[in-house]
Amino acid sequence: MDQAKTLSGRAHIRVSLNEDKTIQRELMHGEYKIADVSKADVIEMIMNFTSSLRYG
């Protein structure tokens, strides 16, 4: 039950610059890393979100 409470919060994308000057994007929930995401994944998420606002 406690785990379900922690998953009801807000997710965000953390963007950082690696030592070799490449950009790293991570899907985060609080302080927990859920997955690595690409630039295409981020664009797709934004498109899905804006589409849901239009039709929701």
For the residues shown, what is the average pLDDT? 86
- Cα Rg: 14 Å
The helix content is: 25-40%
Strand content of the residues, in percent? Answer: 35-45%
Distance between the termini: 29 Å
Shape: flat
Output the number of helix runs: 2
Entry keywords:
2 helices, 56 residues, 3 strands, 39% helix, flat, alpha+beta, single chain
How would you characterize this protein structure?
- With 56 residues, the chain is an alpha+beta fold.
- Helices cover 39% and strands 36% of the residues.
- The chain contains 2 helices and 3 strands.
- It has a 3-stranded antiparallel beta sheet.
- The longest helix is centred in the last third of the chain and has 17 residues, at 39-55.
- It is flat.
- The protein starts with a helix and ends with a helix.
Topology (SSEs and partners):
Elements: H1 2-6, E1 11-17, E2 23-29, E3 32-37, H2 39-55
Antiparallel strand pairs: 1-2, 2-3
